[in-house]
Structures are given as C-alpha cells and as structure tokens.
Known about the structure:
This protein is mainly alpha-helical.
Amino acid sequence: MEGKKRTFSGIQPSGDLHLGNYLGAIKNWVDFQDEFDNIYCIVDMHTITVRQNPADLRRRCLEQLAQYLACGLDPEKSILFIQSHVPAHAELGWVLGCYTQFGELSRMTQFKQKAQQHADNITGGLFTYPVLMAADILLYQADLVPVGEDQRQHVELCRDIAVRFNGIYGDTFTLPEVLNRKAGARVMGLTTPNAKMSKSIPEGCVLLMDKPEDIQRKFKRAVTDSDTERCVRFDPVAKPGVSNLMQIYSAVTEKSYDEIEAEFEGKGYGAFKPAVGDAVVERLRPIREEATRLLADKVYLESIYKSGAERASYLANKTLRKVYKKVGFVAR
Ligand code: AQP
C-alpha cells in the first residue's frame, strides 16, 4: 500500500444505514478502494453524544459491520474497525480539544441542529463532537475524507486544528481534504426535498435493509414538484424533488442527467418515481441478502473487527506518541 494516498471515514451506529449514507459515503469508499490505502470505522463513541439504548447500540455495531462488508468493503483492502476499540481516538481527542476554540465549535451547523433536536440533553460531548472527529482523521494522517457534503464543515475545522497544531509544534499532521462526487453527495429526504435524507425523518428515508416493497412504497410517495411543466428535468432550485430523484437514479445506474432526461421524455413523474424505486431495489437487493448472511456468522465478524483494531492501533499509536512528545508529556 506504500505511496498511495490514505482515506479515513466513519459512520455512527446510531440507527440503520440509509441511502444517504450509502450514496454519500460507503459507495465511494468501495469505488475508491483500490486507488487508496483505506481505513473505515464504526464510530460508536460519537453515537453516545445523544442517549442510546446499550443493547441496541451493541447490535447495530455488528449490523453495520455486516453492511459495510455486504456493500463491498474488502478487509484485505480496507482496515475496518470499531472506534472504541482504539483508545488513541479518545486520547488525541482530549489533546486536540485544548487546541480548539469555543467559538469555532459554537459555529458548527450540526451542533446547532442537534442541540435543537435534543434540547433536554445538550451535552459537552455533543459540543465537542467535531474535535473527536478531527482526532479520528488526524490519527491516521489521512489525506482524504470521503464523506457527504453535510460533513464538510467538520473536515474544514479538522484542517484548521491541524494547521494550528503544526504551526506551534512543527509538521505533525497531514492536512485532510473532503472527497466526494456530485451525484450522492447530498441526498435529500423523499418527503422533504429541502432537508437531507436522515433517519430522524423515517418516512422519506430509505434504509439499506428495507424490503423491496417498502422501498417502492417510499418512492411512490416521494414529493415531486408542483410546477406545471411536469417533466423530468434537473433543476435543483425550481424542481428540488425531481432533481433529488434524478440524483439518486444517476448514482445507482451511473446514467448522466442528460441520459435520464431523454429516457423519461414525455413520460411525466408517474412513470419516473417507480423506475427510480426499481433501480434502488435492484441496487440494494444483493447488499441486503449478503448482510443478512454475514450477520449470522458472528465469529467471522469478530475476526474482522479484532484484526482491524490491531492494525488501526498500530498506526494511531505512532501519531499519538509523536503528539504526546511534542506537547511535553513524559514518555510512558
Ligand atoms: N443525506 C445524505 N446525503 C449524503 N450523504 C449523507 N451522509 C449522511 N446523510 C447523508 C453521510 O453519511 C456519513 C455518516 O453520517 P453520520 O455518521 O453523521 O450519520 P448520519 O447518517 O448523517 O446521521 P443522520 O441520518 O443525519 O441521523 P440524524 O437524524 O441522527 O442526524 C457521512 O459521510 C455523511 O456525510
């Protein structure tokens, strides 16, 4: 893997994986797998920034690993592990928190949104979430962070923290950049074309493990636009609903927007919505079947996350030792 750029990314096991996670993140991880040296994580420590049921959290970690593998992540090409199995994440997170300003964290859009959603439980963890995310990325000296657009602000803060630390102590961290593709970078909810697809709005959220009939039902009920034109044309401002469906269709079929417009010329929304549903069903079917098969093999899943944590720890501890030395801690 020498000489390749390194990627790092993760998803919270805070609910079932959805089409936004797949198209905005995991699909790119899989597509770029041969090109880069990859590290992909199940970020369980981020998940407890809002209250979780412990048994559900444990179950979802294993389900998520099975789904990562079913989507095509290959443990020979990508290190796959659970964040809490590598204590260096929490340790570097503490250090970086001491190089992050209160004002910077106060400006984070995700914090503002989540603080509204969980107004009765706005914890310090929710506020410092981006610092832990910066530690996740910087520990591995990642060059590229394949995430959806909603995470760009956090990656930019991570760069700012790294620049600040490097400025004080000399070159310590690689400066990471966001890596994503246009189609899938911001999948909107099927019932809320102006808000991102998210598990908090279940009606408009397609889960990777949804049954075909449920996927079809969600697409048939997708909100389209009330324009008089009624034709399939990409225009996110005038036609956010249809443009979102086109984005999804393009991402799962690899067809361009021009090709899609030509395919549905004169057909209207009534034909388009179920066609997108069909394409998504076919794309997700093998993933759902393989994830179900893998989930029954707990011994295999354990072997993957254990060896992943060992390999990740080796890399993470190298960076952590360097940081501890630079800030003036006595070597252990
Ligand atoms: N709608 C989306 N479009 C494109 N990419 C998305 N991602 C998430 N939603 C979309 C990408 O998925 C990765 C994991 O994100 P996360 O761990 O922050 O969790 P989440 O799935 O983003 O959380 P939700 O669904 O939004 O849940 P709630 O409702 O709890 O806030 C990231 O790469 C993200 O960009």
